Amino acid sequence: MGQxxxxxxxxxxxxxxxxxxxxxxxxxxxxxxxxxISAGLIVRAAQAFxxxxxxxxxxxxxxxxxxxxxxGLISLKVNPIRQxxxxxxxxxxxxxxxxxxAHGTVTLGKPRAGEASVRHEQMPKVPGVDKLAALPEVPQxxxxxxxxxxxxxxxxxxxxxxxxxxxxxxxxxxxxxPVDHAYIAAIMDVGPPSYFVTQSEFRRAASVTASxxxxxxxxxxxAESGDSxxxxxxxxxxxxxxxxxxxxxxxxxxxxxxxxxQVIAIG
Length: 267
Description:
Elements: H1 5-8, E1 12-15, E2 18-23, E3 28-29, E4 32-33, H2 35-50, E5 57-65, E6 72-83, E7 87-96, E8 99-109, E9 148-155, E10 166-173, H3 181-187, E11 205-214, E12 229-239, E13 242-250, E14 256-266
Antiparallel strand pairs: 1-2, 2-6, 3-4, 5-8, 5-11, 6-7, 7-8, 9-10, 10-12, 11-14, 12-13, 13-14
Helix pairs in contact: 2-3
């Protein structure tokens, strides 16, 4: 199997505010690891900086993917932007061989008192994961797909040449990975860009930026280790070689865990 997603997202402290991780080419897409690995590591470093038992949990993540990381050692440096009474704003710089591969800001906040609650985004009605077939092999499949179980049930398959740029299904990375915020950041980037369902052939694609909103303080209460999650990806605009992609991620019971917007360079 090679390196698991849990191993890829594992960090250790090298000095106060500095961390390191090691990744392998198991997570390759094109020239390096796919963007979800950098996103997940940024979340891990931010949480480690505040301490594993901190009541401040990730609420938002914004990432610039400046270069695909190669296999080997990655360093992460955390700098606090501001730490208020309830909310912390942290900057995380990800480097490899003294070159920036990603830059992120993470907002972590304590729960707030009050009963205000709005949940209008319902999970689409879809068959259970056990009633669906795995995604068939397609040309130019990234290597990290060897770790990915994806059962399509929304929109159209890649290269379907349809007008509606939407793709989705049940997704899972490896067996037994805890569904925490770092895992969510990683798995929301696993699907093929929905732009490709409108096309007849693949072209090169790379994440440029992504903004994540984490909607549950304790996602592991809504999804057990090894559960498949429902991921929906839509593109409303692709212009001048950039696709605006929107992602939603639900638990098996239909709880919206996170949403994201991503800019992907095409070609």
